Amino acid sequence: MLREPTFGPVRQQRWKRLVTVTDPDDFFSQLDEAELVTGDDADSIQSSVEQTESAEHQESATTASESVTSTKSRRRTVSPRYVARCRFCRCKFKQHRIAVRHEGRCDAEPVSQCQYCGKSHTRTDDPEIHLKTCEAYERAETRLEDEDDSDATVTDETSEAANSEDDGHFSRQFIDTQPHEFKAYLKWDCSDRENPLRSYFGLRSLQGEHDFEKHGQLRTSIDIEGEELNVEFGFDECGIAPRDSPNFELDEVREYPIRVYPSAYSSWDDARSEARKRAYFLISPRWPDIESKEGYSTLSNPYDIEGYDVEVTGSYWDFEQYPHILQQALSALADRQGFRYSNPTLLHPEDFAPDQIHRSSNIIDGELHVRVKDGKTGRVISFDGTLHRISHLLSGDQEGYTKTVRDDRECPGHYYTTTIDSRRAGQLIADHELAKEFKHYHLRNPDAVEGTALENPKICVSFQNSIHDGTLYWDDLDQLVKELDEALLNVLEWSNIPAQPDDEFYVADDYFDVSGSRRWRKLLPDQLPRIESKQDDQLVATMNQMNSTDAELVDTLLTDGGKTSPKELAESIGVHLDTIYRALKRLSPLVDHTYGEVQLGSKYIAQELTGYIDTVTGSIQSGLENALDGLTRAESYADDDPWSRWLDRYGGKISRTDDADPDELDVGFKPSTIEEARRILREGALKWSQVTDEPIRNFGFEFAPAITTVDGEHYAPKHFADALGTPG
């Protein structure tokens, strides 16, 4: 007798239907209705698999009757060997469920087409690489440049028509994302010059000409794109020991900060406190065999450059502008030399030429953002919103620095962040390599900006150097801009916020304009459902092949949590280390095994396994292989509405009541904390609301939910509707 698994009532009924033994003689009545696969001319997988059930039964029936049928007769009655064939990759399928899973995920299926030459692209193709060799694209770009040069007096009406036409023929128009925070270390090697450190001595000479005690910081000004900016010069103590060289006659080495900020502000601190456009440069000398003073950390100069190391930070400038701002500021400071000394040591701004930046220069931080109207970002920050789902599906079980922050203390959605590492960045958007933080936030004191553009939240994507695999060099700046821009545009699209300029959704401020430009960016369908579906497929397929060691290994990971080693697993389960390695190979779709560490692949996988592992273990111990087969089929034919999936996922059981009281909702899944229990119930309320089209608060009137944590703490709120908010 089959042992019934412990999951939700809807899936429980499907299980009973699927594992019921059917009389093999009944299968012969289906043979006349079955249709053979026609071969390569089939229009799609879906059209090829409709008769799958009868085809599988035919094969079983033919096997059962082999002893009483002739060879010739058996050839007439046996079903086709394959039930479907993909018309893109030409793969053949023997089972209906595998064919259905393959549909829409085939790497050979064309998903786009070059609008210039008409060549088809698959999911793995990079359109930008194709454009580098596309002759039709080059001809179109050349024609556009010629038209722009020849038509210098186009009217506004003609220009708008031309732009509209270009949108259909050239790269797509997207909202212009605004650069925000930036930090880098830029280096210049001047060893080919007669005096490589001449500009450093020029800065030292400028320091000596100015009376800092009497006048404070040395100031001058520059003009950038019509905006007047203050340039502020000073000097700092540092930990660099004086150079042991006859050409270096200084007893004390200084570092020289240069600050650039709007002239409307009296100081750098005032401009920073009001989050204005600004740039900061700290110039430090470098030479081979450089040493630190006693008590200071060792300096790094891996390429033995003789020149300059400049720490760069700033806000609201395009990233590539910072070297130009530095050089312009140095030119303005050079003009201030000679006021006290008749023969000063001169600064040479050309030593900091933007096209001479050393290849070891690297980027630490970079961020792009948009400002969206308050109330339009619900799909970004909701309990089942984009930021939460990115963390839930892509972050490993207690892995490294994966972090999610949700802070609503100041206002709803005040500060939400989700961080993913380099590997998971590629899972979210193909070809991406940079670790990123996705952020939704309001200003620190929202009440202070009420009624202004700043009361609306920002949505940002930033580079996270602290968890990035490797170094992001200055030469990789284009990659940084492209990845941040693409990631932000995709998050907007997945959250039902248009990726094009739209005054209904976006709000302009002093630095962000609701404007767009044409550029090549990879805009994908929401990848999170695809990732969830893929993990579901891997979960069911792997569980169908588990043995007792596999089940114990998974149960140990679920019980202990976090990371462990293969050796510790072997000792805990009581098997040989080689057995653990073989189990890890079988469980590779669900378990991450790198550098001697083992952990479950994601929080989502851990959550799903928690609901199934008891059933799988019991089935293995009882030797009921058909039970797992039933589980596989139950998953293949599961209801697809979000509420049913939530009930099945968390083992939700509904007990109807006869009176006006809410129905009892008992959740079988055991969370680790009460806070997690609240989140699970709120997620269920959201799924119920999506299916019924009822206000989410009404969930609290329809059901009386109850859930118990792993520590035995019972959570059964009496007024759960109040926790869900007012009807909307």
Automatic annotation (TrEMBL):
It comes from the Archaea. InterPro entries: DUF7845. Residues 39-76, 141-172 are annotated as: Disordered. Residues 174-514 form the DUF7845 domain. Residues 60-71 have a biased composition (Low complexity). This is DUF7845 domain-containing protein. The lineage of its organism: Archaea, Methanobacteriati, Methanobacteriota, Stenosarchaea group, Halobacteria.
